[in-house]
Known about the structure:
- By secondary structure, the protein is mainly alpha-helical.
- The protein is built from 11 helices and 4 strands.
- The radius of gyration is 19 Å and the shape is globular.
- The chain starts with a helix and ends in a 21-residue tail after the last helix.
Amino acid sequence: MSTRASKRQKTEPYELLYWPGIPGRGEHIRLTFEASGTPYKDVCVEAKNAKAVVNEISTFNTGDDINPPPLAPPMLKHGDMTISQTPNILLFLGHRLGLAPDPDDDGYGYYHVNALTLTALDGLSNEPHDTHHPIAVGKYYEDQKDESIKRAQDYRDMRLPKFLEYYERVLSGPASKGGEYLYGGKMTYADLVLFQCLDGVSFAFPKCVGKMKESKKYEKVWALYERVKGKENIKGYLESGRRQEYSMGIYRYYEELDG
């Protein structure tokens, strides 16, 4: 990219394209904008329809000279660039919005924050989704309910504690720089992702999560959750009415899956 194009892109607005009506994977990107106080357009939420997403993922869309077509949302438009995939968008935004180390100053940290993010998305977003759709994404929950119950029990008993224990260790380690945030002693987009994932699993498995909190095994993790939740910009966003409610997205509540 030329210097002139780079300067022009910095002034271009950010446009988020994601399904309206659910937080979903787009919420991680919303939280990044909200936490940093960065203006953005939530295209489909503001339009109250998914037309912009549908157009982008249409089988008729072959992209353009610089942008291949996206497979699925979320997508971020910025200037003449369109990118997709939640962690890819966060990697692009992080240091630009002050929520990740600049790769020129802390190249290791740039990738550590990405790794911490990917781990949370794997174990605290993708795996919870698979508890209610363990066999086939295209089938109804009711068509795979028996398998879901088994998968959810394994997730509650084995997988969720594994990931919470991991982040408790991260917060107890020296790279955290004090134990308040995951890396470097200040909030990054990895902390925002962990916050959203913890919020989601708390919605999906309230009884299970309640017992985990009572065990006091993961106090640093839940302290981080409350710390992020209490940040002025995040608090304002959560209370604004603009945050999409949980419904039939990644995190779903079924009493039988909560044990």
